[in-house]
Amino acid sequence: MQPIIIVLIILVVLVFIALIKTIQVIPQASAAIVERFGRYTRTLNAGLNIVVPFIDSIRNRIDLREQVVPFPPQPVITQDNLVVNIDTVIYYQVTDARAATYEVASYIQAIEQLTVTTLRNIIGGMDLERTLTSREEINAALRGVLDEATGKWGIRVNRVELKAIEPPTSIQDSMEKQMRADRDKRAAILTAEGIRQSQILTAEGEKQSAILRAEGEAKAAALRAEGEAQAVRTVFEAIHAGDPDQKLLSYQYLQMLPKIAEGDANKLWIVPSEIGDALKGLSGAFGNLGGGVPGFNTGGNGGNGGNGGNGGNGAGTHGSIPAPAMERREEPPVS
């Protein structure tokens, strides 16, 4: 009985193993390569699949989802002979499990090496400045080359990104100095423009102020001149309305003589020729006034005597009115 039981147990175990090998469950977004006696037979898709146990074998299970693979920094030489380290990230997806299994030994390694060589070819035709500012161009070129090369491997490259571009330390220092110099230059230019604009505005303000001041002074002068003209017109009209004679004018001439002689620095002053006529008119006026007083005689033309200014005095003395005598009384001293 025991040998039969052992055989039965062995048969149950073999049946169980056969069932396990017969039923294959493939997860969603995955695929499996089935080989029969070492030769490709078919590709198992997602779901429940049945294979021949002990004859069919699953060679490889492949994830059909999009994969993200970062590659380590790679040294690349630019056109101006500078070594830069570039980190890349590849987004790819397996579209054909059979090709990805049999067309290339390791598609991950193949994509990495193809990315490095393509990147060196692209960067080798650019200088450092263009490399740092042309990431989109480099990404598009990499994607085009990789997508074309990996198509026969059953792989589609969706995106290629440059994660970092690191120039040498000396170049970084030079770039920082250049950026600092550019910032200082822009700051100096902005400061100079601000000062220039301020000076322009100040000059414009001073110009406008001078114009307004000049206009104000002109208007004030015009109003002052208009007022003086009005005053002269008023005086002129008043004089003509009063109808002055020669006697009044002569008297006004004599009143102005002291004002002409004012001032300590006046060493020489000129008497207008009209003064003589004024004196004649004034003497005639006093002569007429004196003719009505008994004993008053103007002395004729004594004012025009031989000694000029003293002639008037001689005539005045000749025709002066005698003053009454004044008595002086002295009080006797008190004893």
UniProtKB/TrEMBL annotation:
SMART domains: PHB (SM00244). Residues 300-317 have a biased composition (Gly residues). GO terms for cellular component: plasma membrane; side of membrane. It is found in: Membrane. Keywords: Membrane, Transmembrane, Transmembrane helix. Residues 326-335 have a biased composition (Basic and acidic residues). It is a single-pass membrane protein. Belongs to the band 7/mec-2 family. The keyword Transmembrane applies. Its main location: membrane. PROSITE patterns: BAND_7. Residues 300-335 are annotated as: Disordered. Residues 21-179 form the Band domain. This is SPFH/Band 7/PHB domain protein. Coiled coil: none annotated. Gene3D superfamilies: Band 7 domain. PANTHER family: STOMATIN-LIKE PROTEIN 2, MITOCHONDRIAL (PTHR43327:SF10).
